[in-house]
Amino acid sequence: MNSNNEKQLNHLMRSLSRIDGDLLCDVEPANPARVIPIKKNRNWQRVATVAAALAVLVTTGVVIRHVMFGGAFDY
């Protein structure tokens, strides 16, 4: 009985190894990844962003100052 179990186990392992081998033959290698160049930030873009942020802050400050301390709606 022990030898029968070993034979069945060996048969199962051989059949599984054939299945794995067949599956590995069907698998294609992965395509190489595309290299995407990194866009460099230009200096003028950085300066323009800082200038726009400062303009928004100054404008917001002026509006708040006029609304809080009067002068915006004085007729």
3D architecture notes:
With 75 residues, the chain is an all-alpha fold. 68% of the residues lie in helices and 0% in strands. It has two helices and no strands. The longest helix has 26 residues.
In short:
By secondary structure, the protein is mainly α. The chain is built from two helices and no strands.
Draw up the topology in text.
Blueprint (H helix, E strand, L loop, with lengths): L1 H25 L16 H26 L7
Task: Give the key terms.
single chain; 75 residues; mainly alpha; 2 helices; 68% helix; elongated
Q: What's the SSE pattern?
A: HH
- Which regions have little confidence, pLDDT < 50, spanning 5+ residues? none
Helix content: 55-70%
Report the principal-axis shape: elongated
Instruction: Evaluate the radius of gyration.
Output: 37 Å
Count of helix runs: 2
Count of spatially separate domains: 1
Give the percentage of residues in beta strands: under 5%
Largest sheet, in brief, is: none
Distance between the termini: 109 Å
Main structural class:
mainly alpha
Mean pLDDT: 79
